[in-house]
Description:
Elements: H1 2-21, H2 28-45, H3 53-94, H4 96-99, H5 105-109, H6 114-124, H7 129-135, H8 140-160
Helix pairs in contact: 1-2, 1-3, 2-3, 6-8, 7-8
Amino acid sequence: xxxxxxxxxxxxxxxxxxxxxxxxxxxxxxxxxxxxxxxxxxxxxxxxxxxxxxxxxxxxxxxxxxxxxxxxxxxxxxxxxxxxxxxxxxxxxxxxxxxxxxxxxxxxxxxxxxxxxxxxxxxxxxxxxxxxxxxxxxxxxxxxxxxxxxxxxxxxxxxxx
Length: 161
């Protein structure tokens, strides 16, 4: 570990350079830690016969930071989508009697596929995605897909009304 402490001290400027190159100005401590872990991994994986350590360490450290950025972006995108979906569902539920009364269910179902109807039926029964999935022997992701496409059609119908 004493050897790594020396390595970390020696390559700290490299980690900071990569942070700057990637324009990481938020959560720099987290990315610095990712850089240190990647430096340790580079030290463990490095083989002298494959070339100099500096470019090898640079690519490992930068790669780990880019992977983390990609993960965060993916989570951020998913969170925004779920927030919009939840908002639409809440609005839909709050106004279902006004804009989409239960009696209109039959009308809406004319435009939905069988699976979309299954999701909508479960939705009206206040079933969660897991329950609907088990009831129809499919995955939760399949039910999410039904929901997404059904909501799009319902939203389009609502916009045309």
